C-alpha cells in the first residue's frame, strides 16, 4: 500500500468493500447511498498519503471511521432537507407558488437592473439608504456631502426609477422598506 500499488489497493478494496457497505447501509438505511459513501471513502483513501498508516489495523480503523462520519453527514444533510421541505406549507408546493417566486425573482432582477442605471452618486446614495438601511445623516457624513444633497439625490433616484420601471415601480416599496 505504501508504494501505491494497485494490486494492494484492489486487495484492500475486496477485503473491506462489502463489510463497509453493510455497515453504511445499516446507518443510512439506503443501499445505493451506502455504496456511494463507501466508494467516496475508498477514493479519498487512494488519494491520500498512505505512509501515515503503519499497518492494516490503522487502515481498517480509518475506513470504518470515515464511512461512519460520511454516513452521519449524509443523515444530517437529509434531515435538514426534510425539515426544510416540511416547513413549506402545502399551498406553497403548487405551481402557482413557484410561478409567483419566479415572477418575484424577475421583478427583483429588473429593479436591480434599473438601480444600476442610476447615475453613480444617486446609485451609491440609493444603495446606502435603501439597501444598507443607513440614515440620511450617516450617509452625508460618510460621503462628505450635505444632507440636502442626499435628499435631492434620493428624490432624483425615485423619479428615475418611477419612469424607468413604469408599472413595476409599485413593487419597489415591497423590496426596499422606507422607500
TrEMBL record:
Superkingdom of source: Bacteria
Keywords linked to the UniProt accession: Sigma factor, Transcription, Transcription regulation
Domain RNA polymerase sigma factor 70 region 4 type span(s) in chain numbering: 114-161
Signal sequence segment: none
Domain RNA polymerase sigma-70 region: 12-77
Family membership noted in the UniProt record: Belongs to the sigma-70 factor family. ECF subfamily.
Protein name (Swiss-Prot/TrEMBL): RNA polymerase sigma-70 factor
Annotated source species: Butyricimonas hominis
Organism phylogeny: Bacteria, Pseudomonadati, Bacteroidota, Bacteroidia, Bacteroidales
Amino acid at each position: 500500500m505504501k508504494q501505491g500499488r494497485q494490486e494492494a489497493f484492489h486487495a484492500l478494496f475486496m477485503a473491506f468493500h462489502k463489510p463497509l457497505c453493510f455497515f453504511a447501509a445499516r446507518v443510512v438505511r439506503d443501499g445505493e447511498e451506502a455504496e456511494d459513501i463507501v466508494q467516496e471513502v475508498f477514493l479519498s483513501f487512494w488519494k491520500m498519503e498512505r505512509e501515515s498508516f503503519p499497518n492494516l489495523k490503522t487502515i481498517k480503523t480509518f475506513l470504518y471511521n470515515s464511512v461512519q462520519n460520511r454516513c452521519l453527514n449524509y443523515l444530517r444533510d437529509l434531515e435538514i432537507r426534510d425539515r426544510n421541505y416540511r416547513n413549506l406549507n402545502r399551498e406553497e408546493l403548487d405551481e402557482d407558488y413557484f410561478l409567483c417566486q419566479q415572477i418575484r425573482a424577475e421583478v427583483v432582477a429588473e429593479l436591480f437592473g434599473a438601480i444600476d442605471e442610476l447615475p453613480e452618486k444617486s446609485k451609491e446614495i440609493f444603495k446606502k439608504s435603501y439597501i444598507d438601511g443607513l440614515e440620511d445623516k450617516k450617509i452625508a457624513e460618510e460621503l462628505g456631502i450635505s444632507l440636502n444633497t442626499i435628499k435631492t439625490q434620493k428624490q432624483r433616484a425615485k423619479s428615475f426609477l418611477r419612469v424607468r420601471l413604469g408599472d413595476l415601480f409599485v413593487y419597489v416599496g415591497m423590496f426596499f422598506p422606507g422607500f
